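Handout, section B. The chain below has 198 residues.
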Amino acid sequence: MSGGAPASPGAAEPQAPAPASCRELFWSFQALALQGFGGVLPVAQRVLVEERRWLSKTEFLALLSLSQVLPGPNVINLALMFGDTHFGWRGAVAAVAGLLVAPLLIVLVLAAAVQQAGHWPWVQDALRGMGVVAAGMVLSTAFKLSGALRHNRLGLVVSGALVVLTAACIGGFRWPLLWVLPALALPACGWAWHRQRG
């Protein structure tokens, strides 16, 4: 029959796409870094999850969560862990270098230019406008990733409550991140562990 036989239980599932080499990893992260005006995180989510499909939404969210609780910029941490997963230390170096090389050169040139022209009113207005756009990009990324909360072991209600509490503590009460992490992350980890054992 042309419909094809159903796959046997022992049949291997098709592998998810993955970077073929450190070179591809470097150029991919450099391309997304050059698109990341106002922040690379939204572009990283679009490229890694939607375009190249190297990560699912859940995998991206897990990497992002870990990268945010580690010291250092979260996108750098994410690139380092993603590269290390595929090619070890060489992949980590390739991904981080891709994120940093071209933007570093551009920022050095722009920093020199802004130092010369930073007192001009139109330059200050442009910088304020970029700040608003950056905030919008971060919010859009959060909205796209919110669907992954349905599959989280904590459950949708608890996950949503933690999102609201975190936003209130950091944005509303202006608590330092070092206070918010133990106050909310430790109970969340404990509840996830309890749910997994149950």
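Note. The longest helix spans residues 74-117. Compare this with the example in section A.
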